[in-house]
Automatic annotation (TrEMBL):
Domain Toprim: 3-112
Active-site residue numbers: Y283 (o-(5'-phospho-dna)-tyrosine intermediate)
Record site: Interaction with DNA: H33, R138, R139, D142, W154, R285, R473
Pfam families for this protein: Topoisom_bac, Toprim, Toprim_C_rpt
EC annotation from Swiss-Prot or TrEMBL: 5.6.2.1
GO MF term set: DNA binding; DNA topoisomerase type I (single strand cut, ATP-independent) activity; metal ion binding
Gene name of the encoded protein: topA
The protein's name: DNA topoisomerase 1
Region listing for Interaction with DNA, in residue ranges: 162-167
NCBIfam families cross-referenced by the UniProt entry: topA_bact
Family membership: Belongs to the type IA topoisomerase family.
Domain Topo IA-type catalytic: 128-572
Gene Ontology biological process: DNA topological change
Length: 858
């Protein structure tokens, strides 16, 4: 047995490191944290802020194995990542595995190469308790904020919601940007573009240096230009340079991977983690732009050999963030001799990192800028043409140029022909086009990361999980926004004639940008109204600074927590007691039929329109909003239209047909079958002919593609991807199968595997009581309705075998359920009957059952 045990947090990392260490070392993985705060309950003593850590259920077997390995080793090397999270992992391991200081060593490295690993072994240290405490402070503070604010949301907004220190601020940014866009009033102006010809008929594109607010002024200028002799008034040429950007930090890598590769933040970090663990790049969670001398030398050697000595310009960059203390280097290749790697997806990201690092060590690009002024002294304003020539490409040779989302799309930099001052030019066309100002753009993932970093909110390790969380919580999404249409005026001067046309222009459309959901807006407004300090950008940044001070030993973490909680908890109590419920209610108008108020608001099942008041003697009626509609922007007229749904059409093949809208969007209901109406199609426009077309398309899609034991097999695509259906059984079709061309053997194989799995699923089942004992991934468990319960151990502390579980009575199983949930079998008949009655009455008038039915996807 090896005398040295090395513990890392990832199996891939363990595999790579094992290659570099000899037979005296055994490398094992902890698979991340081995313990954490409990999943149920806060797990924090609020008088001392001491966390109650526990080994998670899925890590108990692993911890037992690690303890056994520790007993056989003389020295344990804790080699988790070098950031605070990694330090905390090492500390938890040392504590749980009962490692003594004399039998443990902490090693860190920012790249997984043989030299780095061996150097780390030669320079061990002990666990840095300050870094551990900084991580504990973050974990404990965020747990307290989440556990105390979330129940307030359940009570005041809607059950099942959550709040968080960083996630709620990220949502606030997106909501505020959306409100800014809604409140934006576009202003029109006329921009003039001219195309001029020199004596050799070469074109020069130029822009007028003045915009006109009024159409009449633009037309007047065109009239003047009609008879004007245009000349070159001035030519200015000046040298310039462009310099490379610094090497990647976590944030800039996420932004650039989004811009250049179209990767989302989560995907970028997943691929970067693999590149790091497989030894290709340095540590990928960093806010430092510094490079080691070794890296600078390596880049210089590669640049000189590949491009030439004139392209090399070694330099180091200064990190702007004062808190960038943990990481030693920017993200860079570990070996500049490795220009590409085999895996296509990994290689795309690796190439980006490789080229960015090389570019940062290359000479500036030399450019020559040319500005030509075109006009006549008789004209009040002149045209300007701008051009640019690259004299020496420098770093552009490796990295090229990519415009950011903030750069002007109409940038006019181009190569210009040679002209001289006084030279007469003829105009080919001069065009005045009506242009409207645009609001600030919605956030992309890259833009949101940039803004969070700019405000000092979160740290490199938090950006990806924060962005994932706010989408998982359904506070924001990336739904497509359909554009609006408006008229624009365009006037063109050509051959001494002015032609005016009115064109249609689309505007306001968006896709793959963050948009707040209705519930996201309501939650944000409630939190900003009642917890202004917690959602304050400055406060969130100051908390991050406190974590940095704890990491450097300049602040005690429990003192920080005491100070925070002494102000935070009283506010929680005050809001819980005194704040009004939040529904995002908007009074839209009065229903002309009933004379009752029409509201847009959040209800139990999401955004809805309500006619009448909840305390009226006659219950209100409701209608669900359609996809793309929003309680903050829906008009009175659009709201009343929703009450026309569902509506009935004529029968098809003897089965009733209706059109409605539900949780998954608008649909045609044919008998008991729900068929989604294609995206972007207005359900109110669906007439008998269109409904029959949609039904016929469904018939074709649902036609049997094969048989299995004499029964038809159909296929379709649902929420969870492609599937085949046999009797009442849905079978997911994995990607390894060609879904469009499934063979009979494919179908047999898929259904056989599903039936075998189903046969092994139940150990015992009581269908009437909705109780079963099932085989699960982690062993047998009890299922009651949708709830799952653990199977307790026997009196001798051993687990039940499957044969023993088969012999259990229903009463015994019920007792196990009530031990874990005393209210599991509590009488619920009366409240359920009352609720059913209310729902029935409301939905009879509003025709709402469709809003609750699942829609079968085509």
């Amino acid at each position: 047995m090896s005398k040295n045990l090395v513990i890392v947090e990832s199996p891939a990392k363990a595999k790579t490191i094992q290659k570099y260490l000899g037979k005296d070392f055994e490398v094992k993985s902890s698979f991340g944290h081995i313990r954490d705060l409990p999943k149920k309950g806060m797990g924090i003593d609020l008088t001392t802020f001491s966390p109650d850590y526990e080994v998670s259920a899925d890590k108990k077997k692993l911890v037992t194995e690690l303890k056994a390995a520790v007993k056989k080793a003389d020295m344990v090397w804790l080699a988790s990542d070098e950031d605070r999270e990694g330090e905390a992992i090492a500390w938890h391991l040392a504590d749980e595995l009962k490692l003594k200081p004399e039998n443990r060593k902490r090693i860190v490295f920012h790249e997984i190469t043989k030299n780095a690993i061996l150097k780390a072994i030669d320079n061990p240290r002990d666990i840095d308790q300050n870094l551990v405490n900084a991580q504990q402070a973050r974990r404990v503070l965020d747990r307290i904020v989440g556990f105390e604010m979330s129940p307030v949301l359940w009570k005041k907004v809607k059950p099942g919601l959550s709040a968080g220190r960083v996630q709620s601020v990220a949502v606030r940014l997106i909501v505020e940007r959306e409100k800014e866009i809604r409140e934006f009033t576009p202003k029109a102006s006329f921009k003039l573009d001219g195309i001029f010809l020199n004596k050799t008929e070469q074109e020069i594109a130029a822009k007028l240096k003045k915009d006109f607010e009024k159409e009449v002024d633009a037309e007047k200028f065109l009239e003047q230009a009609k008879t004007t002799e245009f000349k070159v008034l001035n030519v200015e040429t000046k040298p310039g340079t462009r310099s490379a950007s610094a090497p990647f930090t976590t944030s800039t890598l996420q932004q650039e991977a989004s811009s250049r590769l179209g990767y989302n933040v989560t995907n970028t970090m997943r691929l970067a983690q693999r590149l790091y663990e497989e030894g290709y790049i340095t540590y990928m969670r960093t806010d430092s732009v510094n490079l080691s001398q070794e890296a600078i030398e390596g880049a210089k050697k590669q640049i000189t050999s590949e491009y030439g000595a004139e392209y090399s310009s070694p330099r180091n960059y200064t990190t702007k963030s004062a808190s960038a203390q943990e990481a030693h280097e920017a993200i860079r290749p570990t070996d500049f001799g490795v220009k590409s790697i085999g895996d296509v997806q990994l290689n795309k990201l690796y190439q980006l990192i490789y080229r960015r690092t090389l570019a940062s060590q290359m000479a500036n690009a030399k450019i020559e800028k040319t500005v030509i002024e075109i006009g006549n002294v008789s004209l009040p304003h002149h045209f300007e043409a701008q051009g640019e020539v690259i004299i020496f490409d420098g770093f552009l040779k490796a990295y090229g140029i990519v415009k950011t989302e903030d750069e002007d799309e109409e940038n006019n930099d181009k190569l210009l022909p040679k002209v001289s001052v006084g030279e007469v030019l003829n105009y080919k066309t001069i065009t005045a086009t009506e242009k409207f100002t645009r609001p600030s753009a919605r956030y992309t993932e890259a833009g949101l990361v940039r803004k969070l970093e700019e405000l000092g909110i979160g740290r490199p390790s938090t950006y990806a999980p924060t962005i994932q969380t706010i989408q998982n919580r359904e506070y924001v999404d990336k739904r497509e926004i359909e554009p609006h249409t408006r008229e624009v005026i365009k006037m063109s001067l050509a051959k001494d004639k002015i032609k005016k046309v009115v064109l249609e222009e689309k505007f306001g459309g968006d896709k793959n940008k963050f948009i707040p959901t209705d519930i996201g807006e309501v939650v944000n407004d409630f939190l900003t109204d009642n917890f202004r300090e917690i959602l304050d950008y400055g406060f969130t940044a100051r908390v991050e600074e406190s974590f940095d001070e704890i990491a450097s030993g300049d602040q005690k973490w429990k003192e920080m927590m005491t100070n925070f909680y002494s102000k935070f908890h009283p506010r929680i109590e005050d809001v819980e007691e005194n704040a009004d419920r939040a529904t995002g209610d908007r009074l839209l108008g009065v229903d002309p039929k009933t004379g009752k108020n029409v509201h847009a608001r959040i209800g139990r099942f999401g955004a809805m329109i309500q006619i009448g008041e909840t305390d009226d003697e006659e219950k209100p009626i409701f209608a669900s909003l359609m996809t793309g509609q929003n309680i903050a922007t829906i008009t009175f007229e659009e709201a009343l239209e929703l009450f026309k749904l569902p509506f009935d059409l004529s029968e098809v093949d003897g089965q009733p047909v209706s059109v409605g809208v539900g949780r998954f969007g608008p649909y045609v209901k044919w008998g008991e079958t729900y068929i989604s109406i294609p995206k972007g199609e207005d359900p109110l426009s669906v007439d008998q002919k269109r409904a029959e077309e949609i039904i016929n398309e469904k018939k074709i899609a649902d036609a049997p593609i094969a048989t299995y034991k004499g029964e038809p097999v159909t296929k379709g695509t649902g929420r969870f991807g492609p599937f085949i259906k046999y009797k009442a059984i849905f079978v997911n079709v994995p990607k390894k199968y060609d879904f469009e061309n499934l063979s009979q053997s494919d179908i047999n194989e898929l259904i056989d595997a599903k039936l075998e799995k189903e046969a092994n699923r139940y150990i015992q089942q009581w269908e009437k009581e909705k109780i079963s004992i099932e085989n699960g991934r982690w062993g047998p468990f009890i299922k009651f309705g949708k709830a799952m319960f653990k199977i307790p151990k026997k009196a001798d502390d051993t687990k039940y075998e499957a044969d023993e579980l088969k012999g259990l009575s229903l009463d015994e199983v019920k007792k196990w359920i009530t031990d874990q949930d005393p209210k599991a079998f509590a009488e619920k008949k009366k409240p359920a009957a009352k609720k059913a009655s209310t729902t029935k009455k409301a939905t009879t008038t509003a025709k709402k059952p469709a809003a609750k039915k699942p829609v079968a996807k085509k």
